[in-house]
Amino acid sequence: MSELPPERPTNPTEQRLSLLLEELRREAGGDDRAFVGSLMRHVRVQSLLRELLSAVGGLTLAVREALALLLASRSGENR
User: Model's pTM, two decimal places?
Assistant: First the structure.
């Protein structure tokens, strides 16, 4: 199977990821399709969890700001 030459990582994070993936590939013994499938499933799950947690964080922020506005308007009415 011919592989495309890897692109050069552009920042330190991508370089570190590239090194870690290379180590994993060597440990897996080359062309292990089960390993690749497992790795891709983990990446997908982590990506979905990140998006879910981001949405929950956004919702929490919106509720907090709404409560702050509500409390601020009520304290203004009492004066």
Answer: 0.52
